[in-house]
Amino acid sequence: MISHPSFEVEPWCLRESSLHLDVLEQSESVFALSNGHVGWRGNLDEGEPHGLPGSYLNGVHEVHPLPYAEAGYGFPESGQTVINVTNGKIIRLFVDDEPFDVRYGRLRSHERVLDLRGGFLRRTCEWTSPAGTTVRVRSTRLISLTQRSVAAVAYEVEPLDAKVRIVVQSELVANEQLPETTGDPRVSAVLESPLLPEEHYAHGMRMRLLHCTRHSGLRVGVAADHIVQGPSSTQCASESSAHIGRLTVTSELEPGETLRLEKFVAYGWSGVRSRPAVRDQAEAALAGARSTGWQGLLDEQRGYLDEFWARADVEIDGDEEIQQAVRFALFHVLQAGARAEQRAIPSKGLTGSGYDGHSFWDTEGFVLPLLTHNAPHAVADALRWRQSTLPAARDRARQLGLKGAAFPWRTIDGSECSGYWPAGTAAFHVNADIAYAVTRYVAVTDDEEFERETGVELLVETARLWHSLGHHDTHGRFHIDGVTGPDEYSAIANDNLYTNLLAQLNLRAAANAVERHEKQGAALGVDEEETAAWRDAAEAITLPYNSTLHVHEQSAGFTRHQMWDFARTRADQYPLMLHFPYFDLYRKQVVKQADLVFAMFLRGDAFDEEQKARNFEYYEPLTVRDSSLSACVQGVIAAEVGHLKLAYDYLSEAALMDLYDLENNTRDGLHIASLAGTWLTLVAGFGGMRHRDGTLCFTPRLPDRLRRLAFTVHVRGQLLRVEITGSSATYSLLEGGPLEIQHCGQSVTVSDKGPQTRPLSPVTTRPAPQQPPGRRPRRRE
Ligand code: BGC
């Protein structure tokens, strides 16, 4: 955990005013830049010291055998792991004859600033070499949001007290040596030098490297060009070899003189294109970047982000640190998804290699809700990626003896990579999460073309899966047995309520979509009999309820299980999965992460107010939050049922997950779902925003700590601003025609004639529920 105050509290940037090598690997994740296509961790320009060097291209991975002590039918045979591609960010510096290395000499000052409006990382430092020469180094780095293959660095060095001989080496480095991250030698082996050389080139200020992966058959090209400005003594020379492209710049600088280097880097990759094609792809992107120029790239970045913030900013009065954390969260979620363009959005974005770079339900469950209202094009693309993986999902369903499509629990290219079937194969809810994301996106955007071309197929194939996975009992009830819901401490359970409620929505949505798009339905072979069967199953779905306790059951029989012995579980035994066998977790009442509570958020229509409150109070003392995906969801429902202080504590946990490294693994990459969840807790929790029959409904309420909360949501081409204070909510239409919404159950028409202000409804307060001992979220107040 980052225990010292690492970042100063400022509204629009994240400033680290001195370098802490003990938390370097965390800060590399926090300062990562990405556009969803290219990602660079916040490694120091000179490459060393580093926690984990990281340059990623979304989708570029290596495959390796998946080990099983006892293999079984249908176990995936091969795993996929994101690889560290050619590093284009390295700029090494020699001062007289000393390498600039912060571990030696004296680092007089060191500041890094992640600018959330400008979309760049700026570093400024002053260093005295062991020989006593002092220089100032300034670098600014960006990954372009407007030119998706492009990254760029501006690097400046100046002597501060005496004349100095400077050598700068700007490099492209493939197959960097990485710290060992996995105990499995087979995995380490493929990751050790994943790139085989195909071509290298250097001439003048330019260089290029082409590589391919050994087993996954992907080709990666990276090209760089430079502009160098310095005194007349400045000379440049370039060279390349199989794994290195290098421009060496030498110069003699007097105090007051500066050597400046602008580096433009462009990536291209493909699983099908030829060597010349990938080479040309990288060169073309580079030409584009060169013609835009450094200042042009900065200006474009600012323009892109100005537009994003105008649609997506969340303003908070009353807690400056959370204000900063929320913008940090929004920025990173945007970075993860903005230009992913029909590739997966990994659970760590492109900020680290945690979870092997895999995507999970995190995307549809957490990231897409935010993007649906703030960057809807990215949602359509993320779901088109799912559609493009339908062949693999259909094959997987066949392999499992099921119909339709079974999307993978974790993957890079669309095929299942989970080697642990109880929490992989059995976690079928990912299919309903995808379907839910489709319906939400269509309801919010009215994107008919998307529904026709993509939505219908995703809904139909997932509905088919549910219909074949479930069965009607002799009384006609429809059950889905032997599945794992979001709570991974209960596996292979019958009638998981979350799964059943989302499957119900999925079955109905598919039947409705086919009615709207008969042609597409017919092309997929859907007939009336099939849609009738889906509707029957949806009507008859089982929703387990314990009528003695008056609470819903997370799955059939859950409330009958023995309670986990929380009193005898020590604080250092969390997360439980690292200290107790799964079989014991599975048979007791203990919840890893919001499951039934999540169902109450996504399917609030299936519960009345009293049930929500009782369910929340029942499951709170069982929920240990061993997953970062939990706090934000608990925060949403805590706010809904009136535990506003608790909701605020959960908001803080979600928002500060990475800034405080709360799970001790930010080094592996950021928790993108939790960051997106921050927005959910604010907008769906304190804003009380829900979709009901195509209408946006708000039940706003603020915790004492907040004086004001304001946010903007995009809905059907219109832009609605919501501003909440302790006593009222004001709705204004920033773009588009009149919009019908609901405020605390009452209809409100918002138009360009002016804002509408309504008083807040009183909140029924209840005694705060307890969490398991030692698992209470940190009090924010
Ligand atoms: C959670 C999953 C999640 C995965 C990736 C696990 O710890 O239990 O729900 O999808 O992490 O974030």
From TrEMBL:
GO molecular function, one term: hydrolase activity
SUPFAM superfamilies per the UniProt record, alphabetical: Galactose mutarotase-like (SSF74650), Six-hairpin glycosidases (SSF48208)
Region of interest (Disordered), residue spans: 749-781
InterPro entries named among the record's database cross-references: 6-hairpin_glycosidase_sf (IPR008928), 6hp_glycosidase-like_sf (IPR012341), Gal_mutarotase_sf_dom (IPR011013), GH65_N (IPR037018), Glyco_hydro_65_C (IPR005194), Glyco_hydro_65_M (IPR005195), Glyco_hydro_65_N (IPR005196), Malt_Pase/Glycosyl_Hdrlase (IPR017045)
Keywords from the UniProt entry: Glycosidase, Hydrolase
UniProt domain Glycoside hydrolase family 65 C-terminal: residue ranges: 689-750
Residue stretches making up the Glycoside hydrolase family 65 central catalytic domain: 327-679
Pfam families: Glyco_hydro_65C, Glyco_hydro_65m, Glyco_hydro_65N
Glycoside hydrolase family 65 N-terminal domain: residues covered: 16-270
Family to which this protein belongs: Belongs to the glycosyl hydrolase 65 family.
PANTHER family in UniProt: GLYCOSYL HYDROLASE-RELATED, GLYCOSYL TRANSFERASE
Name assigned to this protein: Family 65 glycosyl hydrolase
